[in-house]
Amino acid sequence: MKTALLSLFLFGWTCSGLNAQSTLYQPVDLQRAYEAGTRSLDGQPGPNYWQNRADYWLQIWVSPPSTEIRGEAVIAYVNNSPDELREFNFKLAQNTRVPTSQRAFDVSPGFLTEGFQVHKLTIGEFPIDWNSEEVNHSGDATNHRVELPRPLPPGGQTVVRMEWTYDLGTTPDDIREGVVDSTTFFLAYFFPRIAVYDDLNGWDETKLNEQTEFYNDFGSYDVTVHLPRNFVVWATGSLQNPKEVLQPAILNRLDKAGDSKEVVHIVTDREIEAAQVTLQQPELSWHFQAADVTDFALGLSDHYRWDAVLARHTRSPGDVFIHTAYQPNSVDFPEAADMARKTVEYFARKMPGYPFPYPNLTVFNGHSMMEYPMMVNDVSLDNTDDVIALITHEIAHQYAPFMIGVNESRYAWMDEGWATFLEYHASYGAFPLSDSMATFPGYYQRKVKATTDASFDLPLYTPTDLLFPNGYGFNSYGKAATAYTALKELLGEEEFKRCLHEYFRRWTGKHPVAHDFFYTFNDCSGKDLDWFWKAWFFEYNRIDLAITGVELQDGGIDRIEVTNRGGKPVPIELRLTLADGSQEVLRANPKVWRDRSVVSFYYGGDQRIVEARLLDDWYVDPVPEDNLWRAAD
Prior knowledge:
This protein is an alpha+beta fold. Among the domains are: 167 residues, Immunoglobulin-like (Sandwich); 86 residues, Immunoglobulin-like, CATH 2.60.40. The chain is 23% helix and 28% strand. The protein contains 13 helices and 30 strands. It has an eight-stranded mixed β-sheet with strand order 5-4-7-2-1-13-17-15, with no helix packed on it. A six-stranded mixed β-sheet has the order 16-19-20-21-23-22, with helices on both faces. Strands 8-9-18-14 form a four-stranded antiparallel β-sheet, with no helix packed on it. α6 packs across α8. The longest helix is centred in the last third of the chain and has 23 residues. It is globular. The two termini are 22 Å apart. The relative contact order is 0.11.
């Protein structure tokens, strides 16, 4: 008589030398980094690791409804590399708007501008020629090399001064920044910046095309925004002079919100209509500072509501002051401050369970879905589930690419994948969702079921700056989040979080690449995970499990054979339906696929099996017809 439900035959872990003899593919630039000691095979920064630094002092003049932005910059640049630098590469993100620039997708005429107009550049005490017409209509308007008047030796420093103007875009397809309405602007990538020079590729010359995202050095920012009265500015960092720009009543509410668990309405329609938000001098200067960040962004308006609340941490570095700025007629944003509070607290306490990296966060109501250090630019949405998914996703980016400065141009899955993974956990862990498919993995599943061509089998390690939109989006978001989910299942949540925290600790304020992530998890877990990394990140494969054999034994042990036809190591959930209508679910950890493509489940219960089905509620199988076996009548 069958008396027990048995598990499948499990295989143990082996740890053969870990990364001393890594079997992962390593590109030549990475091999050279290991030889130079800037990176290590245990995933830690090498003993000779270095990165350069640029600190920015910016003065910005804005006068809506004029769309012209005028700026001045002083940039203190430090060459920490072992190389003598003979040139600087300037990144010019606004030049994606120049009509002749290459873009990943079509845009409307209002998107187009003439890009940055640089009026003055000095390096040290030397003036440098800059022909904006020539630069902006070159083969790559988003990068411009400038020969240094004197080579900058290792350990050397220099000061760059620039003056420029540009026009904001004016259409809703300004997906990251631009004019929201005639007196509401969101400014990002509003200054020419010095590109990253790193130990792998030297100067970063990735072409920006509105799909490709960013890779920036860490630095401190001191930014002053000059505006007419009645305009409020929200920005990266902390406002340094609130008494010089805000009315006393507004200051009092701001102070109250800084210690409040409940949302405080800092600015309402009443103050806006009475012009009682800012001091009433003709021009006000808003002064912000931010330390050790990779970018700076700001939003401004003369008619936006302003809410604030404090998110409480359970451990250091402390609480997070959350702000929201939004249109008076917004339906979803009145709830955004509390949503952001719950999200930050969830991230700090649950998943990833790591302190939120910044003391401030603003969610600004623009027409985008984009992240910046301490700033989120979010469009209004009708569906509450979509609002939750969007807010949790963009706030998750504060961990990556901002706390850890990944190259999101080359490895978008190192930031978008984590944001998608954390979006799922926060959306379900901190909120009640009406539709379980509203967030990841729902949209990932829909994509998989709609498309089965080879473009969706591309390895995750494929450089994302070389991908077209469909492959870029699939690899960067859903597939990467699924890989991290499989990794969590493989290690178990406790060990997964421990290794993730170690990755954060090692690489906060630095520039990790993919292998630094892989090898940190190998080192922290004490397990050789190269087989997992190969299957998920380097091989041309997909998720596809199949029931390939069922052996029923009268009075004995039944066997159900499952084959991994696709190649990706995922958990197995095998649901058995028995003759009396009851059901049993057998489960297996992804580690069963470490050294084989076929595993067997064994069942020894009292009832006869009439159906076996592989469940793919999360790890979507595009070939579902081989996931089901039924007994013959």
